[in-house]
Hints:
There is one protein chain. The protein has about 260 residues and is mostly helical. The protein has eleven helices and no strands. Helix 1 (about 1-15) crosses helix 6, helix 2 packs across helix 6 and helix 7 (about 135-160) packs antiparallel against helix 10 (about 210-215).
Amino acid sequence: MRYFRIFLLHMQEVVEQRGRVFVWLLIAFFTPAILILFWRGAKEIGGWTIPEITSYYLFIIVMNAMLMSHQEEHIARIDIQEGQLTGYLVRPFSYFWLTFFRELPWRLLQGGLGISALFVLWIFLPNWFTITTSPLILVGTVLICILAFFLTFLFKSIIGILAFWMTDTRGLFEMTNVMLVVFTGSLMPLAFYPQWLMHLIHYTPFSYMLYFPVISLQGKVPFTEMTQGMLMQVVWIAAGIFVYRALWRAGLQKYTTVGQ
């Protein structure tokens, strides 16, 4: 119940700043929109049809808004470097779940706006979309999206608490953002990459954050491969929990030692 109240408090904050959420969604729309125009002018797109590539980038916009967490800067700059973490350590709840329910309202509102915009586009431009009609695949995609959110949240939390050992995290965050753009399929579908690179990325957690949910929604992944992908997501989540806990324990010792 206490975490639900924390969620409601932060939901109020998010609703108060809904204009900023709308602006972020517009900013997230620009790059995929340019890429859609680029690929629509290409003669060959690696075996993908124009509606498939168009819907891919439109789904990437929504998935990015709904699944990609952005709490790492708050954790690093405000909580750790400015010392606000001290107040959370004496409270009777987990700092991990506090940041989770602080981030969740932003994803729900921003994702909801993205889905609404996508629905309007689908009404007026139905030929732009390719989406699975299988109820089983749709249910599997929902589960994949939930796991993807946990995966991105864990990854960004780990990046954030690295501030225990760093005085300037801007370079780390910028490098992380570049990696995510390239390896999550935001720049282009991973199927367009060289085979060796695509297979390599599939052994990392990045392809399961955005690319895997999007191609599952498009119906490009058989159900047997979806279950394998979900298993990989669970494995990476478990690995992320282990790494987060180890860094958190070591970081708290560093945090108290330097007197932040």
